[in-house]
Amino acid sequence: MKSLSTLTITLVLAVASPVLAQEAAVSSPTPLTQLLAEAEASNPQISASDHEARAARQMAPQVTTLPDPKLTYQQFSVGSPKPFAGYTNSDFAYIGIGASQELPYPGKLRLRGQVADRDANTKEAEIDVIEVGIADAVKADYLQLAYLQQTLGILHQNEAVLDQLIQDATAHYQVGQGMQQDILEAQVNRTKIVREITMHHQQMGQLQAHLKGLLNRDQTSPDIVTEDLNETPLKLRSDELLALIKNNNPQIQVDASAIQKQDAQVASAKREGKPDFEVGYMYQNTDRKYRDYYEFTFNVRFPRKKRVNAEIAEAQEELIASRQTLDAHLAQQLSQVQQDYVQATRDEDLLKEYREGLVPQSDAAYQATLSAYASSKEQFTHVLLYFTDLLNLKLEYAQTLLDHETALAHLESLTGATLR
Question: Where does the record place a coiled coil (predicted)?
Answer without folding.
Answer: 305-332
